[in-house]
Sequence to fold (186 residues):
Amino acid sequence: MNTNKQKPSLSKIGWLLAVASAFGVLSTSVFAATEFDYAKVISVEPIVESVRVSEPVEECWVESQPIYSSYGSRGYNSVTPNIVGAIVGGVIGNQFGSGRGKGLATVAGAVLGGSIGNDIKHDNRASSQTSYRNVERCEVTRKQHREERIVAYDVSYSYNGAIYHTQMNTRPGDEIKVAVSVVPVR
Fold:
């Protein structure tokens, strides 16, 4: 059995460790040399997008609503129309017939007159007691419109005599913070 194929050689392991160490030192030195400074803002241009906006809108109006009131609904229910109707019906019924028929015509006239009086009372109550009041009605609808919105800013700034450009989510002031890295040149 060949043991060289099962284990990597010591020279390969050493070489890998050397490369990994070099990357670690290089990356540490780059990040260790990063400093912060401020650059002067030269110009700021908003980036605008047109968007569709849907908003709830309440619309209200006034309607005239009938109010139906009756004596019965307020606890008063007069029987006067029934009585008057029965008397008038009895008098009219008494004018017809003779003998026993006269009494029957009087009773029939009184019953019919009372019924007619009751009907007239209910008709008058509904129609003579109607009034109106104004009632406000409201409804929520959705209105759509287009609106211009700022989504970012194009920023030009100057640092050590050179001009740079970037995009930012918020509007900067007169200066912006910049990261400055010092890397040796070989």
Q: What stands out?
A: Helices lie at 10-32, 80-94, 100-128. The mean pLDDT is 78. The chain has three helices and four strands.
